[in-house]
Every structure is written in C-alpha cells, then in structure tokens.
C-alpha cells in the first residue's frame, strides 16, 4: 500500500514538474491568428469567459499590473479608450498574470481604477499561451477572436508627447472596414512576473 | 634698518608663512581623510537609436548590456549582482547599462541610483523618437519588458539573452566560455 502511494506520489510530482508553467513566454500568437475561448476567475472569484465578455465588435485583452508605474501612467488613457469604444462594441478585459501581486492588491487596484473586469491568470497560463511579456500589453481581437493588433497603446508612456495612437487607430480602422496599417508596435514596460522567476 | 637686515627679516617672514601654510595643508588633508569619501556622481550619457547602434557594437571584447529603469523593481533588485559581475570581469569584457527612464531623470534619479549602487559601468539613457524601432533594433524577440540583459561575443553575436533578472551563474558560465581560448 505504502509502495503504491509512493509510486503514485512520484508520478504526480513528475507530472507537476513537467506541466509547471515556464518562466519565459512560450506562446507566439501572430496577428491574423485566433485565440481560443478561455475562462478565468475575476477579482471576485467569478469565472468569466472571453466569449461572454467580448462586445459585438470584439475585445481588448490587456495584460495589467497593480504595481507597474508604466501601467499606472496609462490607466487614465486605458479607461478613456475603454469608455470610448465600449459604446462601439469593443469591450476591455484586463488580465493580471503577475504571481508577485496578491489577489487583495489586484482586487483593490482594479476596483479603484477600472470599470471593466480584471481576470486572474494564476500560474501565468494565458500569458504563456498568448506570449505576453510586458505590462501594459494589448491583444485586440475581433468578434471571432482573431488577433487584429498586438502591442502598445501609443508611443509615449508619459502621455505628454504622443504622436502615434496605435490602438485607437487600429480600432477606428477596423470599425470602418479599413485595413489596420500598423498591427504590431512595442513599448517599454514592466516584465510580467512569472512563476519561478 | 639696513637693506641686509630688511632682506633677512623678509626671508624669515616668508619662510614662516610657507611653513604655517604647509602645516595648515597637512591639517586639512588629515581632516579630509577623516571624513568618509562621497562617491562622485555617475555621469549618464544620452543616446538615440544611432547611439544605441554604436553602443551595441562590441570592440574586441565580449559586450554585456543591461537595459533597465529606476521605475522597474526587478531592475533595481538585480543591480548589486550586475555591479558584482562588472568587478569580477573588469578589463576582460565591456559592460554598459542603458536606462529607459524619462530624459528628465538623466541628471536626477538615474545617476543617484547608480551612485548608490557604486556602479562603474558606462551608463547611457536611451531617448529614441520611436521606442518600437529601438526595441526592434535590439531584438525581434523583445516586446520592451525590463530588465533585459544581453551578452554579445566580440563579433556581435548574441550569446545570452535574458528578460527578467539575470541568473548570475548562467552569465558567469557564458562569460567564462567566451573568455577561455579555444584549443
């Protein structure tokens, strides 16, 4: 009996080790690729899915942090964009994948800051699947969950000298049936604090 | 008073003054040595993408580059390890740091932090017109998350690439491999 339990324990430990989240982003979702529907608990523990939360014209999945100064610098702009485009059928969905940020911390930050749900990605599973590495990081999906734009919100984290509103331009282009000219842009931000780092 | 006597008195006064002055210097020197030395503030040089291109071109040594910012917690946390690495490999490699802080911090928080860390690596602050272009120039695999540390061999090939805090043993192993002459 003891022997069987020991073997079972060893096998389970091996599986846990093999299946443990990687410490680097492993996903490589390219623009034009599709995101499968996912379900994650929000800050109140209610499980919500991408398909339930998205708007009629799609969704923005945005990787956030309660701690990152760059996210804080963008919070006002994020809220403005969420308000401006919710009425146009694009809903914002926040994801927090930082294992260093407690649920209470994320919950209070989200409640004080955002009017859209923030989902908890324990074990950075969805950050890994999508290949997200930085906060804030945007994945703009159409109504069929196809990735239309990936990356930064705009080209100036201070907000004082923006010359390229990447995300707003992507929204306006897709909503008016035009091709999105710039589908990928990066910006400096905080690394997502993955399990094991 | 004769001219000879006046000259002698003058010489005595001058000698006394010089002696007193040297005693004074001696005192101030010993007083200075009693006060703890204040490290000189680190100078941080502003670069754009052209400067970045130049900074990331190795000379005849391996080049270690750390991208960081004062607002980045893991960047600050790993800095003592970077300073340690710099001391261990001084003269054998080139090691530079590139800050992504706002330009307004170039004479404030950036040198203040580097001075606190006793960092001696050449320090730059990147102010690019287009951050996306700067990020793409550094690596196609980089989305801009800090910290980032890259080791280049003398030919410019990336040998080590780490987003997040460095793993000292891994960097040391890579550096030692690069610095060991091939048989």
Task: Please provide a written account of the structure.
The complex is a heterodimer of chains A (197) and B (183). Chain A is of the alpha/beta class and 197 residues long. Chain A has helices spanning 2-19, 50-53, 69-86, 103-113, 125-130, 166-175; strands at residues 39-41, 47-49, 58-64, 90-96, 118-120, 134-135, 137-141, 147-151, 184-185, 189-191. In chain A, the strands form three sheets. In chain A, strands 5-4-3-7-8-9 form a six-stranded mixed β-sheet. A two-stranded antiparallel ribbon of chain A has the order 1-2. In chain A, helix 4 links the parallel strand 4 (90-96) and strand 5. Residues 8-26 of chain A have low confidence and may be disordered. Chain B is α/β, with parallel strands linked by helices. Chain B is built from six helices and seven strands; from the N terminus they run αβαβαβαβαβββα. In chain B, strands 1-4-3-2-6-7 form a six-stranded mixed β-sheet. The longest helix of chain B has 32 residues, at 3-34. Residues 14-33 of chain B have low confidence and may be disordered. The interface between A and B is medium-sized, with 23 and 21 residues. Strand 10 (189-191) of chain A pairs parallel with strand 5 (145-146) of chain B.
Global mean pLDDT of chain A: 89
Low-confidence stretches of chain A: 8-26
Largest sheet of chain B: 6 strands, mixed
Assembly state: heterodimer
Query: In sequence order, what are the helices and strands of chain B, one letter per element?
Result: HEHEHEHEHEEEH
**Cα radius of gyration of chain A in angstroms:** 18 Å
Number of discrete helical segments of chain A: 6
The CA-CA distance between the termini of chain B, in Å, is 87 Å
Please give the order of strands in the largest beta sheet of chain B: 1-4-3-2-6-7
Helix/strand structural class of chain A: alpha/beta
Shape of chain B: globular
Please list the strands of the largest sheet of chain A in the order they lie side by side.
Answer: 5-4-3-7-8-9
Gyration radius of chain B, rounded: 25 Å
Number of strands of chain A: 10
- Structural class assignment of chain B: alpha/beta
